[in-house]
Structure formats: C-alpha cells, structure tokens
Write a structure and sequence with these properties.
The complex is a heterodimer. Chain A is of the alpha+beta class. Chain A folds into two domains: about 80 residues, Beta-grasp domain (Ubiquitin-like (UB roll)), CATH 3.10.20; about 70 residues, [2Fe-2S]-binding domain (DNA polymerase, domain 1). Helix content of chain A is about 35%, strand content about 15%. Chain A is built from five helices and five strands. Chain A has a five-stranded mixed β-sheet with strand order 2-1-5-3-4, with helices on one face. The radius of gyration of chain A is 16 Å and the shape is globular. By secondary structure, chain B is of the alpha+beta class. In chain B, strands 4-5-10-6-7 form a five-stranded antiparallel β-sheet. In chain B, strands 11-12-13-14 form a four-stranded antiparallel β-sheet. Chain B has a three-stranded parallel β-sheet with strand order 1-3-2, covered by helices on one side. The interface between A and B is medium-sized, with 32 and 34 residues. Bound molecules: flavin-adenine dinucleotide (FAD) and FE2/S2 (inorganic) cluster (2 copies). Flavin-adenine dinucleotide (FAD) sits at the interface of chains B and A.
C-alpha cells in the first residue's frame, strides 16, 4: 500500500500529512492530530457523533476517506472557540445544561453551527431537522433545542 | 447502534436469501457484529474525467468500485466485510454535479447531492416532487454527502429518488469503454443491488422532462420515524386530467420498498386512464397497485402491512395530486 500526502486546513491551521489510502478522516483527526472532540459511534453514518464541517457542509467524518478531504477546509468542535472564548453555541449549551454525558455534544454543536451559518433565524422545526442527524443518548433533545434557540438570538444580536 | 438496526435491510433480506440459495454461508449481521471489518482498499483515485474513471475500472476489472458519497458503499463494505483493490472517486469530475434545464429537459448530474436536489430552483419549479423526495433522505449529513447516482446505482428497492424519477420516465446516461448509452430508468434496475451497469461503466447523468403545466406530481414516504429512516413504502404519482369531464388523461405511479426493485404500478395506471376520477375509481386503482406490489417481511414491517400501506399511500397520493390540480389555473 502506498501512502499519499494530503493537505488540509483544520480549524484554520494548514496541515499536511501522510495517510494510508483507506484511512478515514475521523481517524486522522482523532488518532493522528489528537482532535478527540470528534467522536466515533457507529462508523456507518447513522449516529452523527463524528460530524465535522467540511468545506462548509456538515458531514459524517466516519464515511469520508481522508483522501477525499485532500485540499479541504475542516472545522471540528475544537475550532469553535475563538481566542480562548467559547462560541455562543457552546456558552448556551452550558447555560441551558444541554449536556449530560457529552458524547453527542460535538456533533450537536457542529450541526447547530452549520444550521445557523445557512439560516440565522431557524424555526423550531428547522432546528429539529438541523440536529436530526445526531443521536443523543441522554438528554431527550429539549434543552439542546432551547440552547440553539437562544444561541441563534445571541449570534444575531 | 447500527447493529440492531440494519440499514439496507429491504435489499439485504432479499440478497441474503439469494446468497443462501447459492449455497454460500449466510451472514447474520446481528450475531456476527463483532466480526465487522474495517473497509479496506489499496488505492484511492480522485479522477477528473469520466474517461479516466472508466479506464481505471476497466484495468482493474471487478476489483475496483466507484465511490461517490460512499454512504452506501462504505457501510456495506463494513457490514459485509469485503475489501477491494481500488476506489475511484468521481465527485471531483467538473460539472458532474450540475442541475440544468434546457429545451424542456432537466439534466441532473450523477454526483448532485440530495441537498443540491432539494434546494435546486429548477427542480422546485419544474419537478418539485423530486426535490421533496431528496429532502426526506436520511439526515442532513447524509443529504450533504450522498449522491443521486449512488442512490440509483446502489439499487436498493428503498432508494427514495427512484419512484419520483420513474414517474418522470427518466433516462440514465451511462459512460463506458465503448462510449455512451442511454437506458430508460424503468429498465435500469435488474434486482436488489443490481443494475444494467457493467463493472467498468459509470452513470453520468439522469435526464427528465419538465412537469407538464397541466399535470401535478407528488411524493409520499412512509417511515417508522421522520429522520434517518428508509421508507417502508414510498409512492410517487403524476396525474393530469380533463378538467371538464374529470377524466384521467395521464397517470403514472411509482412505488418504492415493495418489490425487488423500485417499480411502476402499470396495471393500476392502465385501469385509471380515461376513467372519471372519483372515490371508487381511485380506490380501485389503489387496490390494483396493492396487487402489483410484492413486498417482503423484515425487521421493519411485515409484507401484509406494507401491502396494505401501498393502498393507503397510493390513494392519498392521487388525492393530493387532484387537490393540486384543482388549485391550479391552467
Ligand atoms: C444514515 C443513513 C440514512 C440513509 N437514509 C436514506 C434514505 O432515507 N433514503 C434513501 O434512499 N437512502 C438513504 N440512505 C442511503 C444512501 O445515503 C443514499 O442512497 C445515497 O444517495 C447514496 O449515494 P452515495 O453517493 O453515497 O453512494 P455510494 O455509496 O458512493 O455508492 C453506492 C453504490 O453505487 C455505485 N455508484 C455510485 N455512483 C455511481 C455512478 N455515478 N456510476 C456508477 N456507479 C456508481 C457505487 O460503486 C456503490 O456500489 C441512507 C444512508 C445512511 C448511511
Ligand atoms: S460514527 Fe459517524 S455517524 Fe456514527
Ligand atoms: S449528552 Fe449523552 S449522548 Fe447526548
């Protein structure tokens, strides 16, 4: 098997690294770059905890060969905070206690980020659809939805 | 999670039965889940032209696969535990994801994503039910990553984009070593997981006509829940009627998840054509569609339930089309 060098911009930092042809993006992020905020659940696209934003789009990184991400711009949960300050979404998740075990939180935060980037004033239903690709094993979603609603307000103001 | 909840179960149940008949070991994805393997391949090509893709596929006869979004392929490789020599990624081919309308035809590039389809102004205006179907696929993540071509080439009986394309009598444009050919979508699917494509061909484009101004079309999907669920039954209906007589001028009914491939309910169509559209004729057409479907039982629903729902959904879809027609000024 021949390795190839890929280039990506991860959380604003440009990186180039050698990958196996069949290495998955989620493993490159977690195992090679230490970005363990991105979680692994099913590895089949069902649970959404591996979600990252690749070239502006929310995608499951467990189904993306690293080679496909070559040249791409990636945002993981680690890239949400700016200059030591949490993103409004992260703040609201804490305020509203929208976190229990936290396993789904990175996927939820990035789903919400992708949603608000595209639609700064989502309706309740649009928020539900926005996070429908991430399974929360704990909270029952209500507080997550409330957190996104108030973060949307604070992002706008 | 994926364990108790097999995704492609409609096709897999059928496929499994087939492997069993062939005398091979039957794989039980539930009890053997600890044996699931990481999908592996030795080379990954990101090609820039369809020709390049075809060339690689020809060189590595049978030992390479096309990958578009990978949402079906990689999950299946994992569940079935098979590896290949090479994957040929076609999503970087310029223009292969375009959606254009010209001379009354809509051309849909094979790597257009469900998200592209659901947001396309061309489709929203001229073939809304396809945008509707695309917006109900999987999850936001899957809609961003999956593709039209993958949905069709995977040939799951439950492929959500198939019924709406069948009622538009779509054509599939296929590129191969000997040039290009066009196949009506109606004869594209040959069985669960099987199509007319040979291993070195790729699907380039789907071509549909614009919806006639005097017709209406709709898509309905019945799942167990709203997100990330394959259809138990899906129905697409296209209808045009003589407004004075209320007789049916044109009817096409596409069904998903109720036969080895997505199908047209042609007997129901033939029954309704020329007839007055009233409660009785609509119900009889729905019953005819039930008789034409051959659903299987699996973990998600029994065949009886699915068949019953074909009747309900066909009737509902025809009524919805009627409502739309009545609201239209033509
Ligand atoms: C969580 C989840 C939910 C899902 N929900 C739905 C749903 O609700 N409805 C639904 O219909 N599907 C659903 N799917 C299935 C899948 O996402 C869709 O069918 C998707 O459109 C497949 O596209 P892809 O590009 O990812 O296919 P891929 O996995 O890339 O390809 C699938 C197959 O087609 C072949 N192929 C792909 N493109 C071409 C081409 N242009 N020419 C020749 N061969 C090609 C590949 O070799 C492979 O065999 C779901 C999947 C997941 C993981
Ligand atoms: S780990 Fe990627 S969707 Fe579950
Ligand atoms: S907080 Fe535990 S999975 Fe969502």
């Amino acid at each position: 098997m021949s390795k190839s060098v890929i280039q990506m911009e991860v959380n604003g930092r440009s990186v180039s690294l050698e990958v196996e042809p069949d290495e998955m993006l989620v493993d490159v992020l977690r195992e090679r770059m230490g970005l363990t905020g991105t979680k692994v659940g099913c590895r089949e696209g069902e649970c959404g905890v591996c979600s990252v934003i690749l070239n502006g789009k929310l995608v499951p990184s467990c189904l993306i060969p690293a080679m496909k991400a070559d040249g791409g711009k990636i945002l993981t949960v680690e890239g949400l905070e700016k200059d030591g300050e949490l993103h409004p979404l992260q703040k609201e998740f804490l305020n509203k206690a929208a976190i229990q075990c936290g396993f789904c939180t990175p996927g939820m935060l990035l789903s919400a980020k992708a949603l608000l980037d595209e639609n700064p004033e989502p309706t309740l239903n649009e928020i539900k659809i926005g996070i429908s690709g991430v399974l929360c094993r704990c909270t029952g979603y209500r507080k997550i939805i409330q957190a996104i609603e108030s973060a949307a307000k604070s992002v706008r103001s | 999670m994926g364990v108790g909840w097999p995704r492609n179960d409609v096709s897999q149940a059928v496929l499994k039965r087939k492997t069993f008949q062939k005398g091979k070991v039957m794989r039980d994805p539930v009890s053997k889940s600890h044996l699931w393997k990481k999908p592996c391949w030795e080379k990954y090509f990101r090609v820039k032209t369809p020709g390049e893709a075809v060339q690689i596929l020809e060189e590595l006869q049978g030992e390479s696969r096309v990958i578009a979004g990978g949402t079906d392929l990689l999950a299946r490789m994992r569940q079935e535990g098979f590896g290949v020599k090479a994957l040929v990624d076609i999503t970087c081919i310029p223009g292969l994801g375009e959606i254009r309308s010209e001379d009354g035809l809509i051309r849909l590039g094979a790597v257009a994503t469900p998200k592209d389809l659901s947001q396309s102004s061309v489709l929203r205006e001229k073939a809304f039910c396809l945008a509707q179907a695309a917006s109900q696929i999987g999850t936001p993540q899957i809609r961003n990553l999956g593709t039209l071509g993958g949905n069709l080439c995977n040939a799951s009986p439950a492929a959500d984009l198939a019924p709406p394309l069948l009622i538009f009598e779509a054509k599939a444009k296929i590129a191969g070593g000997k040039g290009e050919r066009e196949v009506p979508l109606d004869s594209f699917f040959t069985g669960p997981g099987q199509t007319v494509l040979n291993p070195s061909e790729i699907l380039k484009e789907i071509i549909i006509p614009e919806l006639r101004l005097d017709a209406s079309a709709t898509f309905l999907k019945l799942g167990r829940r709203k997100a990330a669920d394959l259809a138990l039954v899906s129905v697409a209906v296209l209808l045009a009627m003589d407004r004075k007589e209320r007789t049916c001028q044109l009817i096409r009914i596409g069904l998903g998840s109720v036969a080895p491939t997505p199908i047209r309910a042609k007997q129901a169509e033939a029954f309704l054509i020329g007839r007055r559209l009233d409660d009785r004729s609509i119900q009889e057409a729905a019953q005819s569609a039930m008789r034409e479907s051959q659903p299987i039982s699996d973990v998600r629903a029994s065949s009886q339930y699915r068949r019953e729902m074909v009747g309900v959904m066909v009737e509902r879809a025809i009524r919805k089309c009627l409502e739309q027609l009545e609201g239209k000024d033509v």
